Amino acid sequence: MPSSRSAEAITFDNIQAARQRLAGFAVKTPLLENKTLNELAGKRVLVKAECLQRTGSFKFRGGWSALSALPEAVRERGILAYSSGNHAQAIALSAQLHGTTATIIMPNDAPQLKLRNTEAYGAKVVLYDRPAGEQREELGNQLAQSQGLTLIKPYDNPDVMAGQGTTGLEIAEQAAALGIDHAEVLVCCGGGGLTSGIALALEQSAPNMRVRPVEPELSDDVKRSLISGQRECNEGVPTSICDAIVTPSPGELTFPIIKRLCGQGLSVSDNQALHAMKLAMLELKLIAEPGGAVALAAAMFRQQEIESDAVICVISGGNADPAMLAKALSAD
Amino acid sequence: MPSSRSAEAITFDNIQAARQRLAGFAVKTPLLENKTLNELAGKRVLVKAECLQRTGSFKFRGGWSALSALPEAVRERGILAYSSGNHAQAIALSAQLHGTTATIIMPNDAPQLKLRNTEAYGAKVVLYDRPAGEQREELGNQLAQSQGLTLIKPYDNPDVMAGQGTTGLEIAEQAAALGIDHAEVLVCCGGGGLTSGIALALEQSAPNMRVRPVEPELSDDVKRSLISGQRECNEGVPTSICDAIVTPSPGELTFPIIKRLCGQGLSVSDNQALHAMKLAMLELKLIAEPGGAVALAAAMFRQQEIESDAVICVISGGNADPAMLAKALSAD
């Protein structure tokens, strides 16, 4: 049975409405181009620098979108989220700016920078044992019920997806201003909130662009799901330095949109992600975290799998510890 | 005798004209704000990210402005410049995009990244012995005369100054959009092209802002010149990691404007510049080179010398070698 657009979690109008709510709060991040990257890739490479977004990742768009859409009385009772760190910071800051409280369930192996920043934004952090396979979803549901908190899931939430989709509206406008309307748009993909949001935004605002999800090789559930046509899971707990996008499977709400609109998935090695981080630092003057660098890595190191003359890569976040940045700088 | 505005090298109109020539070629760089930096400084800190400019520094504005203002017949004969690296890359790329040739005189101790990139932009690089005190100005004049090239000085050139001033027009507009019209504007200062250009742009577009030049402690010629009222020189060859802004003295054309419009100079240690580089990486997700980080360093570490409730810092460039970035990451 072909997937039906009317059954999807959000529409283009939801993304436009989210953009209204984000105006004056989210950064309109630049779309950058660099001569060296163009030469390395043999085509125009445009980079959407979402690492410059508030809290250091695109997640602020979705977090703000979701909190600003809640009725005030609900929001006041407090917000709950689970996240490896970027959604955590986004919810923490959005809650703080809205004058409410945030409780965040985070894995005990999250980068120190993300844990520290989440607390610095005033959130209460509850740790769970990810390496041991503890499930954050269960813990989240328990806390939400017992404390009357509203759970904002990191990707399977329509308002979050609509917020992430605002990135796509900006890409369409900024690329058009640079004379580009045909392109493959490479998006770092975990649960698929950003990927599905951008795909839906571009369907209407730049119909000649095609989104391609990019994942770490050892956590390529979206790529495999696009091949099989149904949501596939990663086996066990995938090991990758790309903590931000290591997720068990594509989202229930995000996958139907990804399936209908996206091209084939791409995957890169951790080492390629590190090399892309180094290129981002030396050429673009941007800090990318490993999971935020996989789209750029695919543009640079998976060229044979990309057909279009122009490629747009989202650097989705830049929250890396100094040790990880030093590791990337010494990549060769 | 009070300095006379009519005797100055450029006017506000020249900056507006430069902006017209730069439209579609230079990046309108973002003005970023970060919660952690605000808390560390105890005030709003806005960062103008000129490290995201083409060629990795603000110098592209001045280079493009100067080349685009030349008569075509003159431009075609070839361009000559001397530079520690950022003006070099700016002139090299501007020449390449205009379809003409560039010859660049660079010090033999310039960062490898800057030398390599200048050649990658198609320029012919001629090295001189800076540590031994060889004078680039003499060499430049000789080459210009013998080969019929047009010398574009790095700061003492009206069209270069006007180009750098376009940074100030953007700052005024972007700060106003964030609700800020009173601020001290800290500018990394070498010969004073950027400082004088921004000061002149703000005089008309944001008259409640005051520019403060920032230098390395061991190369504080502008600070001392502002005290004495006349152009002072650095003694010998100053030693600083801030290669981009180590210059012998304020420019002949830039200093009258700096003297009339700028507040007291600030200076920071190399170690403070390294710490500011680390903050830029971890908090702003931006790469700053040492000389490009001194304004942010002053905002963070010289707070007792800053009066205003809001401060705007220009990160003027990001062309640092991996070893320098690693050094900054390990600063404590």
Considering the chains and any ligands shown, give keywords for the structure.
homodimer; 332 residues; alpha/beta; four-stranded parallel beta sheet; 14 helices; 10 strands; 15% strand; globular
Structural class of chain A, by secondary structure, is alpha/beta
Oligomer type: homodimer
**Dominant shape of chain A:** globular
Low-confidence stretches of chain A: none
* Most residues in contact, chain pair and counts: A-B, 30 and 30 residues
Determine the mean pLDDT of chain A: 94
Helix content of chain A: 40-55%
Number of strands of chain A: 10
* N-to-C span of chain A: 48 Å
Structure description:
Two copies of one chain form a homodimer. Chain A has 14 helices and ten strands. The first copy, chain A, is of the alpha/beta class. In chain A, the strands form two sheets. A six-stranded mixed β-sheet of chain A has the order 1-2-10-7-8-9, sandwiched between helices. Chain A has a four-stranded parallel β-sheet with strand order 5-4-3-6, sandwiched between helices. In chain A, α9 crosses α11 (254-261). The longest helix of chain A is centred in the middle third of the chain and has 20 residues, at 158-177. The first copy, chain A, is globular, with a radius of gyration of 18 Å. The relative contact order of chain A is 0.17.
